[in-house]
Automatic annotation (TrEMBL), chain A:
Domain Solute-binding protein family: 78-417
Cited PROSITE patterns: TAT
Pfam families: SBP_bac_5 (PF00496)
GO molecular function: peptide transmembrane transporter activity
Superkingdom assignment: Bacteria
Taxon lineage: Bacteria, Pseudomonadati, Pseudomonadota, Alphaproteobacteria, Hyphomicrobiales
Protein name: Peptide/nickel transport system substrate-binding protein
Location relative to the cell: Periplasm
Gene3D superfamilies, per the entry: Dipeptide-binding Protein, Domain 1, Dipeptide-binding Protein, Domain 3, Periplasmic binding protein-like II
UniProtKB/TrEMBL annotation, chain B:
Gene3D superfamilies: MetI-like
Coiled coil regions in record: none
Keywords associated with the record: Cell membrane, Membrane, Transmembrane, Transmembrane helix, Transport
Top-rank lineage group of the source organism: Bacteria
Protein name, UniProt field: Peptide/nickel transport system permease protein
Organism, as annotated: Chelatococcus asaccharovorans
Length: 514, 315
């Protein structure tokens, strides 16, 4: 008896459904046996471009494809990478000796001339390189032989090596050193295998990598998940084995799943900016009043679902000997003191200000709402202005605000990072509009010139004393920055502090799948 | 005016509309505050106005607006939509890759929505349980927003039961994984269409079955199934097809939220993110494709009317 048409269709449908549903876990198992890590990445990185900072997702990809002279290890220390060794000849001069036989993924050699061409390109202002701040003091790069690079700076910079470990400072071939050129060929532990535009990026272990014997993974498949909830869902469903930038609202969901590991550390910070070119924030007493009016605990609760750390001073990176704990104790939540400061500034009654934030990021908006309530409590009426990100950026850079919410993710661990935040806009887009920070910068520069940590710390402390009184910017909270992974993924570590964003990507070369 | 002249006229009007839409969009995004270079460099420390200006020159954003507009319109005819600042890639290449996902989603959702709607609409007239199913489920499905429906499906079928992936897209080279990832978004998009089509089908069948020709067919003694299929359903489907065309037109815009919930790299989410960072080339390119899609559907409908009713082309 032949199959009836309807029976056949029913069977075919059932087989189709089984194929579409039942084999999901089998596929995942097949992937695992190949030791390729599937990674849900928080943004589509597009066509990699050499130099500029394009966000944390691109940092992670850069750190797999590219390698610089140095990198961060699992303890956040600078260790040699393409350079076999390095030394500070004096506070302004660094000598690097390259490893023997270095090549890019395409087999082309890496010599001291390649390194010089890369760094010269990044030192060009119009490139907008992430490490331009460090290379702006570049005096010369000498290449006495094919494996030696001597970098001379016009003034000392104790954090220069940190800058060279930045994910945007890998050494790239000549083909990438042009505006709009794609930057896929590097000297990193993984090479590009497939780029499914807008969907995923598949990398394979590179045989050209100098430390290839210690790379456990056969490859990494980055799958783009821009939506935070969709990213977490993919991890919980087993579609991916690791994700970056876990949404704060999803921490509990991930922690509740026994098969998953949440790796959260205090990461980047959020802060307030002031328009110091016009009243009332041209008056340091009013800025101090705001510093004492904001309840940081409330900000952490409102903006980060409680997953953050209140800041009563400037954020310091753990493990860096150049910070003094006193730097983190500048202001306390004290509404009475805030009211007194406002009274002494002559603006106690009916002060109205605009508070700029952005609707693009919910934590920006929620932080502004929390700050608005705190200001109201001390008699400041803040009117919220919450446009999208480009409008917010334009308003911030052109001083169209009174108070503004901002976010910071420094790329270096030392106190020199403060420069970008204290120097006022428009000279530095991270700073308060119109603020003149020459006295603070002078102390920071003096600290950078000192090789003795204790002496340098004392110099930085002078800068921080000015920050306490002048409040050129106001750090409010450090947010938790989390990666999450399947418990079968081992050897990975989220680096604490600022390095969570700029250093953690280096850990994937040490990662394996059980 | 003959049919050929009528078609030529409709095509010319369509072409003019495409250009008009592009001019309006181009000017509109210039008026909106926010600079693409400032937004792009917002995460780089120590960026001052000189760097911003140098990059603006590099990307040609310092040229006068009329010059850029002309360059853009000329580029359209060569299918050169410019370079995306965000992705450092040809906007045309990005848009075509995203368009494939959107079209696949729209076509599958429309197919299952329309076929399912007609099936359940017919069933509701012929069986009591079908009638109850449509009466209860139809309003429920139509009242639940797509992103809620999608989230519930993910929770039930992916996170709880683990039957299907929670989202994302797999390349065509892996057809099984590719189809797996389309199941839930297609269901999410197709269900409201099916509910609408089922309602309309039901109403039309009830209307048509009271007509004289149906009574005649029954009087001739044709089997009920034959009368239903040949004399009732076929006549009831004309308005259903009109509604289906409207649903199809609206679907390409409706996919945005579903793309977000299921992490699908479609054209709608691309446009939303491009607006969010003022990626001019992508905004203009995506609007070009979407507006051309709508205009082509309209022209096709106009030409079809001309075929079906010769009086239309003579007006």
């Amino acid at each position: 008896m032949g199959l009836r048409r309807r029976t056949f269709l029913g069977l075919a449908t059932a087989m189709g459904v089984a194929a579409l549903t039942g084999s999901n876990s089998e596929l995942a198992l097949a992937r695992d046996s190949g030791k390729t890590l599937t990674f849900g990445l928080s943004a589509n990185v597009g066509n990699l471009v050499y130099g500029p900072s394009r966000g944390a997702a691109q940092f992670i990809v850069n750190q797999q494809l590219h390698r610089g002279l140095v990198k961060f290890d699992e303890n956040g220390r600078i260790v040699p990478a393409l350079a076999e060794s390095f030394e500070a000849v004096d506070p302004s001069t660094y000598r690097f000796t390259l490893r023997d036989g270095l090549t890019f993924h395409d087999g082309s050699p890496i010599t001291s001339a390649t390194v010089k061409a890369s760094l010269d390109y990044l030192a060009n202002r119009s490139v907008g390189a992430a490490i331009y701040a460090a290379l702006s003091t570049l005096a010369s790069i000498e290449t006495p032989d094919a494996r030696t690079v001597v970098i001379k700076l016009s003034k000392p910079n104790a954090s220069f090596l940190d800058y060279l470990a930045d994910p945007n400072a890998g050494i790239s071939p000549a083909s990438a050193l042009a505006s709009g050129a794609a930057n896929w060929i590097g000297a990193g532990p993984f090479k590009l295998q497939a780029n499914d535009s807008g969907v995923s990026l598949t990398l394979a272990k590179a045989d050209t990598y100098y430390d290839k014997d210690n790379v456990a993974l056969a490859g990494i498949k980055f799958i783009y998940y821009p939506d935070s909830t969709a990213r977490t869902n993919a991890l919980i469903a087993g579609d991916v084995q690791m994700i970056d930038f876990v949404g704060w609202e999803d921490f509990d969901r991930v922690e509740a799943d026994k098969k998953l590991v949440l790796d959260a550390v205090p990461g980047p910070f959020v802060y307030m900016l002031f328009n110091t070119e016009r009243a009332p924030f041209d008056n340091p007493k009013v800025r101090q009043a705001v510093a004492h009016a904001i309840n940081r605990e409330n900000v952490v609760a409102a903006a980060f679902y409680g997953h953050g750390t209140p800041l009563n001073g400037i954020p310091v990176s753990p493990g860096n000997d150049r910070f003094d704990p006193k730097m983190g104790e500048l202001w306390t939540y004290d509404p009475d003191k805030a009211r007194a400061l406002l009274a002494s500034a002559g603006v106690a009654e009916g002060l109205k200000v605009s508070l700029l934030t952005s609707s693009t990021y919910s934590f920006f908006r929620d932080m502004a709402l929390s700050v608005q309530a705190d200001l109201q409590a001390v008699g400041i009426e803040a009117e919220l202005d919450a446009p999208d990100w480009p409008t917010y950026t334009a308003s911030k850079n052109s001083g169209k605000y009174g108070l503004a919410v901002a976010g910071g993710a420094p790329s270096v661990t030392g106190p020199v990072y403060l420069q970008a935040y204290v120097v006022g806009a428009p000279a530095s887009s991270f700073g308060s509009y119109g603020y003149n920070a020459s006295d603070i910068v002078a102390h920071i520069q003096a600290g950078e010139a000192l090789s003795n940590d204790a002496a340098a710390r004392a110099e930085y402390m002078k800068a921080v004393d000015i920050i306490r009184d002048a409040v050129p910017f106001l750090p409010v909270a450090q947010r938790s920055q989390a990666f999450a992974r399947s418990n079968t993924v081992e050897g990975f570590k989220n680096l604490p502090g600022f390095l969570s964003i700029t250093g953690t990507g280096y850990m994937l070369e040490k990662t394996s799948i059980r | 005016m003959g049919l050929a002249a009528y078609c030529a006229k409709r095509l010319l009007v369509g072409l003019a509309m495409v250009v008009c839409v592009q001019v309006i969009i181009f000017l509109a995004i210039q008026v909106v505050p926010g600079d693409p270079v400032e937004a792009m460099m917002s995460e780089t420390a120590g960026v001052g106005p000189e760097v911003i200006e140098a990059l603006r020159q590099q990307f040609g954003l310092d040229k006068p607006i009329p010059v850029r507009l002309l360059d853009h319109i000329v580029g359209l005819f060569r299918l050169d939509l410019g370079t995306s600042l965000q992705y450092n890639q040809s906007a045309f290449a990005i848009i075509t890759s995203r368009l494939a996902v959107s079209i696949e989603l729209v076509v599958l959702a429309a197919f299952f929505g329309i076929v399912g709607g007609i099936f359940f609409g017919s069933l509701s007239v012929r069986t009591r349980w079908g009638d109850r199913l449509i009466s209860v489920c139809g309003p429920f499905i139509l009242s639940v927003p797509g992103y809620v429906l999608g989230s519930v499906l993910i929770l039930a079928l992916s996170l709880t039961l683990g039957w299907l992936p929670a989202g994302g897209m797999a390349p065509f080279s892996d057809p099984l994984a590719h189809m797996q990832r389309l199941v839930l978004p297609v269901i999410t998009l197709a269900l409201p269409i099916a509910a609408t089509i089922a309602k309309v089908t039901r109403f039309e069948i009830l209307e048509v079955r009271t007509q004289d020709w149906v009574r005649t067919s029954r009087a001739y003694g044709f089997p009920t199934k034959v009368t239903f299929r040949r004399d009732i359903l076929r006549n009831a489907l004309t308005p259903v097809l009109t509604i289906s065309a409207l649903e199809l037109g609206g679907l390409i815009g409706a996919t945005v939220l579903v793309e977000k919930v299921f992490n699908l790299p479609g054209l709608g989410s691309l446009l939303v993110s491009a607006v969010g960072i003022r990626d001019y080339a992508l905004i203009q390119g995506a609007v070009f494709v979407i507006s051309t899609f709508y205009i082509i559907i309209n022209i096709a409908a106009d030409i079809m009317y001309g075929f079906l009713d010769p009086r239309v082309s003579k007006r």
